[in-house]
Amino acid sequence: MKWTDIALRILKGERNISSPFDETSIIEYRFIIHDTQSRLGYLQLWCPTAKKGYIFTGRLAAPDNEPNVVLTTDIDQLPDDIAWQSSIFCK
C-alpha cells in the first residue's frame, strides 16, 4: 500500500487504518491548516511504531467534521522522531 492510498482513505473518512509497515500499528495523521475558516493546509501521516511518515503538501481542505486538525502555530505538537518523506498531492 502506498502513502497516497492511505491519504485517500483518510480523505474519504476512513479511520483506524492498519500500517503497511507494522500490522499491529494504526496510522496516525493530522491535517495542518493555515486558517480556521478555509481549513486549507496539508496532511501529515505516520506509523508510530515504524517511525516512518509522509507529508502531502498542496491545497488540501480538512473535512468539516475532522477532529485531527492542528493550526500551523501549534505544529510543535507533532512527533519529531519520524523519518519524513514528502510530495505534492492534489485532490
Q: How would you characterize this protein structure?
A:
With 91 residues, this protein is mainly β. It has one domain. It is 10% helix and 36% strand. It has 1 helix and 5 strands; from the N terminus they run H-E-E-E-E-E. A 5-stranded mixed beta sheet has the order 4-1-2-3-5, with helices on one face. A hairpin with a 4-residue loop joins strand 2 and strand 3 (52-61). The chain is globular. The two termini are 18 Å apart.
Q: Which runs of at least 5 residues are low in confidence (pLDDT < 50)? A: none
Number of helices: 1
The global form is: globular
Query: Helical amount among residues, as a percent range?
Result: under 10%
Estimated radius of gyration: 12 Å
Q: Tell me about the biggest sheet?
A: 5 strands, mixed
Strand content: 35-45%
Count every beta strand, where a strand is a DSSP E run of 2 or more residues: 5
Q: Calculate the terminal CA-CA distance, rounded to whole Å.
A: 18 Å
Number of domains: 1
Structural class: mainly beta
The side-by-side strand order for the widest beta sheet comes to 4-1-2-3-5
- The H-and-E topology, N to C, reads as HEEEEE
Q: Mean pLDDT, rounded to whole units?
A: 87
